[in-house]
Amino acid sequence: MVQVIWLVVTVLALFTVGYLGYSRYLAQFVELDDSRETPAHKYEDGQEYVPAKKPVLLGHHYSSIAGGAPIVGPITAGVVWGWVPALAWIAIGNPLLGSVHDFVSLSSSLRHDGKSIGYIIGEYVGERGKNMLLWFAFLTIVLVVAVFALVVAIVFNAYPEAATASLVYIVLAVLFGIYLYQLNLPFLLGTFVFVVAMFVGVYAGIQYPVALFEPAARAPAETFVLFSGSGSWLPGASSFNGNTAAWVPLILVYGAIASALPVWVLLQPRDYLSSFLLYAGVGGALVAIVAGTFFTTPTQPLVTNLEPYYGFIGRSGAPLFPLLFITIACGTISGFHSLVSSGTTSKQLNKESDARVIGYGGMLGEGLLATVALATVAIIAPDVGGGIGLALPTFAAGGGVILSSFGIPTSFGGPFMALVLVSFLLTSTDTAVRLGRYMMEEIVGTPETPVEEFATNRYGNAFVQSLPAYILITSGSWLTLWQLFGGANQLLAALALLTATVWLANWDDSKQLLSTGLPMALMTTITSLGLLWLAFHDNLYAKFLNPEWMASAGTFAMVSAVVQIVLALVLVYLALSLAKIGYDNIKDARSSGGGGGSGGRPQPGDD
């Protein structure tokens, strides 16, 4: 056994080297210059383009990117292949790939008036390339909605206390929005009152846990069950249980409604309150690991109870290559971050030098969250035979053990860490639905037909995303669904790196393309292979060519498997097609000398 503090020390050491060394080089490479006017100042409108102080924008950016994925991925990978491969991918991949991806996505958007990566790629390869990238991102969003809704349901089943606390948390966020934006009451006083109330909500969840049907075995005996029976008749109940299956559609409905509300009603106040959960949960866990190792005595030793390595074919029968690299997406590298970096963040950057700490440093911060998640599962070491329904709640259980170093009872620390996980996931779910609508609006432009009007309508678009997400969930194949999401997310990251490489090639023919080109080629290759494995092995071979599966599979499972195959193949086709278009552009730019253009080195008078 190894003390978990060494996991944290390893990551901190490599992250420090990356930030002090590589990020400094990248900042010089893209020629960050504080004398150049940022889009936030150039187009300041009080709505989207608003200069923000560095600490404020870092908090917003970090809470936007640090969703549930950097928690779920490391937990899943650690249980399947052991903690060493998971730690290595986080500690090495993050500073060399993920942080580079976030930084160049933000930097390229800065030089294109705060526009998205879809717009940027369209500037160089045309409208067809732009629409292909937007379609790719939209399909990825559907997978995001599916996996996060399922994970929330799994945690609600394991921790009914978190279900009650989450309901209180959502109500408090709405009230805080009214307090701030409708009543215009004091900000600091409101912050204090609502943050305290949020922690009181955790206590309320412990006292009054709620479930829809019979919950998991660990649920408190006093859990209030709304409906009698097991709920075994619900789609997906045979793979999880009735309570989990019942929560899924409610969470999807919540995501659809929340995504359609004005941002002041729920999104902004909820994200602000979430930041305090983030600081208390993640920051507290990191400090508690140090305290529990050197100064205090936690409820159990803070050591790794998972094996370091379970072999190339992990405990679930999945090969480490290429599936490890798509199982851990966020926490190492995430295409979703390019949408945030080139979306809201680039429109709020006060000065160009802030891009280094926010873009590169923010991703390192998410790597620390992934490390905490890996530490929690290493301490608890769940049986892989229990599936993700057992593995996921270990973040809460392991987090409770870690927080016990401060003398916090695990009966409080566990549900609190479950709420930390769920708050991130709920945020990511409805934010993803909202982003999906924005992408569809950009694809369609001005609606001219009833179908286009429905696809861009805030309620119709939510239905378009939620229905296939629900079908995917009912397949019951958690690992396949998560890796399908991870593959799509990683390919989106490859396309964001492709966009940055195209930008650099057209900017100046003296710019080296290895910092973005090599990670782009690596992620395109690995994730394409991973998605092809999921399509042909895990779905076609293991399901449709398996008589036993065919004999027992229901209609929902079969439809879900078909959807997964089609999605995987479409995503690979879109990615490889875009890579070919981007490569041709880079070759043409270099053969013609590159330079200039709207995406190149700013010319005199551009400011």
UniProtKB/TrEMBL annotation:
The alphabetical list of record keywords is: Cell membrane, Membrane, Transmembrane, Transmembrane helix
User: What InterPro entries does the record point to?
Assistant: CstA (IPR051605), CstA_N (IPR003706)
**Superkingdom in the source lineage:** Archaea
One GO cellular component this record assigns the protein to is: plasma membrane
Give the residue spans that cross the bilayer: 6-27, 133-156, 162-180, 187-206, 246-267, 276-297, 317-336, 357-381, 401-427, 467-485, 491-507, 514-536, 556-576
PANTHER family attached to this UniProt entry: INNER MEMBRANE PEPTIDE TRANSPORTER, PEPTIDE TRANSPORTER CSTA
This chain's protein is named: Carbon starvation protein A
